[in-house]
Amino acid sequence: MHGARTWATLLIVLAVSVTTVLTGCSGTGGGRGTSSDAPRQRLWQPRPGLAWQWQLDGKVDADSADVPVYDIDGFENTAADVARLHRAGRKVICYINVGAWEDYRPDKDAFPRSVLGGPNGWQGERWLDIRRISLLRPIMERRFDMCGKKGFDAVEPDLVEGYADDTGFPLTARDQLTYNRMIADIAHDRGLAVGLKNDLPQIPQLVHAFDFAVNEQCAQYHECARLTPFVKGGKAVFHVEYTEPTHRFCPESRRLGLSSMRKGWELGAWRRAC
Where is the Glycoside-hydrolase family GH114 TIM-barrel domain (predicted)? Predict the structure, then answer.
């Protein structure tokens, strides 16, 4: 009887094993077919030369430009606003300030006073001590969670070059690299593409961590060629000038493969594209 039970047990184990293998191969039931093992959603990768609209002043005017990409404020726009843009066939970027505290944001009280530095030149804003990773990371994670829940495709994290400014903290280039890579990781972990905003000196170290670039005034300061690594990598450079007339910067922008336009300082709906 002992031998009979042994053979019976072996037959049962063999049958279960065959069933498990077949189930796994068919993609039904457990195993690789479960959502927990599913591959991460592929990130959106904007290509060089893609036209865009950038509006940070209030709620988006979804009819202001017939372009495939809109970059809008993550707090001031709703999931319905993002969905409306998606229905029009557009990708949508979520603007979030990651380098300064803003006294007009709903999560302003989540920032400990110890991370608040000097003013950055914009009313109601103060630089952040980006060395305080353990304090800032949870706040930025919640902000990027908001972008994801509203349906955004990507994030534009602003003020990621505080090390080059008078922030009130002894920030170094290494501090900034560490923080910026963390910001990119937070976005990617949520299935969001992420752009490097300005920070031209650190492009060689960061181009592989970011999916596109956002730049202000590279033509005015004769720096646009420094964005070439993004274009060579097949990644868009969304570029804006505020005071330069388009006839001065558009020829070079087209030559370099930049997505360029002129905007007003208030970043309203008006635009003049190359």
Answer: 52-269
